[in-house]
Design brief:
Layout lengths: L15 H21 L1 H7 L3 E7 H9 L7 E8 L11 E5 L18 E9 L7 H11 L3 H6 L4 E3 L9 E3 L2 H13 L2
Parallel strand pairs: 2-4
Antiparallel strand pairs: 1-2, 1-5, 3-4, 5-6
């Protein structure tokens, strides 16, 4: 749960162009990571299933009311049976545009902080990304899936589905909108 108050958040609306920027930032990070770590590239480069904006910024995208502290962008991969994804990897980069102001904890950044994370999902690389993420969030078998299910998830890939809200679904939305707003 965030301890940043309203003064540390941006209430500017996130648009499709912003989501495309976040998708490009995540794609550059994946390419850089795999270039630096060929052992991981061998196993996971071809198992990428999609990227999504998650947590508070995703909830702000859906409601426009909670504000943006930072952008949490997850790259998801199909689990590999021989090697688990390195779930602890996290990288923090600059959004590179001051549209949303600056993150209080990163005064050297031009824009908001983007947290780049990754997780493996129990699926095949060819499965529908949105369906797999919904099921992963619905079943809540991991700490991360339970945490992400408390807010929202918005697709950044594929290009044809940028901005599609995959969580909460209409069923979850009707029963949890008040709880979602309180957890910000």
């Amino acid at each position: 749960m965030s301890t940043v108050g309203p003064e540390g958040r941006s209430y500017i609306r996130i648009d499709r162009e912003d989501l495309v920027t976040l998708s490009a930032i995540a794609a550059n990070d994946r390419a850089e990571f795999f270039d630096l770590h060929p052992d991981w590239a061998k196993v996971y480069r071809d198992r990428f299933v999609g990227a999504a904006l998650c947590q508070g910024a995703a909830l702000h995208f859906t409601s426009g009311q909670v504000g943006i502290q930072d952008f949490d962008v997850y790259s998801f991969y199909a689990e590999h049976p021989a090697r688990r994804w390195y779930a602890k990897r996290s990288k923090h980069v600059d959004f590179g545009n001051s549209k949303f102001g600056k993150s209080l904890d990163r005064p050297e950044f031009i824009g908001r902080r983007v947290d780049l994370l990754g997780r493996a999902l129990p699926c095949e690389p060819t499965e529908d990304f949105a369906s797999v993420v919904r099921e992963w969030l619905r079943t809540g078998r991991t700490t991360t899936s339970r945490m992400l299910a408390q807010k929202a998830v918005v697709l950044l890939t594929p290009d044809s589905r940028v901005g599609e809200v995959v969580w909460p679904t209409p069923a979850e939305r009707s029963g949890t909108s008040e709880r979602l707003m309180r957890t910000v």
